[in-house]
Amino acid sequence: MSDEQSDTGTGWPEPTGPSRPTGPAAEPDPRPDAPDPDETAPLRGEPRREEPGPDGGLPDGGEATVDLTRQAAAGDEAPPAAPAKKRMSSASVMIAVLLALLGFTLVVQLKTTSTDPTLSAARQEDLVRILSDLDARENRLRQDIAELEESQRQLASGAQGREAALEEAARRADELGILAGTLPATGPGLTVRISGGGKSIPASRILDAVQELRGAGAEAMQISGGVGSPARIIASTYFLDGEGGGLVVDGRRMTGPYSITVIGDPATMRTALNIPGGVAASIRGDGGNVSFEDREVAEVSALHEPITLEHARPVS
């Protein structure tokens, strides 16, 4: 036995390295001064650490590790969760709502425009004519605005204001008389002749024609039939189907064919009646016929009795 073995008294050499070898897990250390394995074993959930070597580092350049399996078995607390995201501010919510409403409006508008049966069935020249008519109407409205602004300046110009006011009042009285049907009117226009082709023309067809002409800028109209005197058409005019055929206009009975004399732009009004699927197409589809005649000077001579107001009063 060597000197080293005699020093320990166990016959086992004292290890000189950073760690001493151990036997199998089932065999205890036979040395009398060996530490109790239960005392030196790491507690459950605690990191198992290697003893530092002579140079202060861990053996084999390793690092202290944690037995994750033991941590999970010991029921350690989970790492803290990530902080929740901040809630959207009220301004962000409002912006999102406004954008959604804008998108919905655009979709509805596009869908309505793309599914318009009248415009989708119109020919290219009809669409060009409609656009030209709209431009002409815009120009007339701008001209009316300019005239009204000029009248306002004249009315506010001191000594000339009184004379200008009288002239303006007379002009407005004439215009209102034409619109009310109490004064005759003349000007460029159109004559529309409607026949039923042996059938009675419903009053709804005549009303549709009048509404189309009004929408196209008609300023004065009258209607006449094969029998009876012409009737002035104003805002309160009504149309009814007569007994046994014919037409009743403001209580006045008429028979076909019918002729509507209208003052306004002839091209615009003719285009409005000839739109595919419109008034002319409907009458022709029922077996009737619609014809047009442009007039440089159309006369609307039929008059309407002045309307007596019962409830309406001017605002003072």
Notable traits:
globular, five-stranded antiparallel sheet, 8 strands, alpha+beta, 316 residues, 10 helices
Number of strands: 8
Series of secondary-structure elements, N-terminal to C-terminal: HHHHHHHEHEEEEEEHHE
Strand order of the largest sheet: 3-2-7-1-8
Q: How far is the first residue's CA from the last residue's CA?
A: 137 Å
Rounded Rg: 51 Å
Please give the count of helices: 10
Secondary structure layout:
Blueprint: H1 3-8, H2 37-40, H3 68-73, H4 90-114, H5 117-121, H6 124-155, H7 159-180, E1 185-195, H8 203-215, E2 220-224, E3 231-233, E4 239-241, E5 247-249, E6 252-254, E7 258-263, H9 266-273, H10 279-285, E8 289-300
Give an overview in words.
The chain is built from ten helices and eight strands. The N and C termini lie far apart (137 Å). Residues 1-12, 17-26 and 56-75 have low confidence and may be disordered. It is globular. The strands form two sheets. It has a five-stranded antiparallel sheet. It has a three-stranded antiparallel sheet with strand order 4-5-6, covered by helices on one side. A hairpin with a 6-residue loop joins strand 2 and strand 3 (231-233). The longest helix is centred in the middle third of the chain and has 32 residues, at 124-155. With 316 residues, the chain is an alpha+beta fold. 41% of the residues lie in helices and 15% in strands.
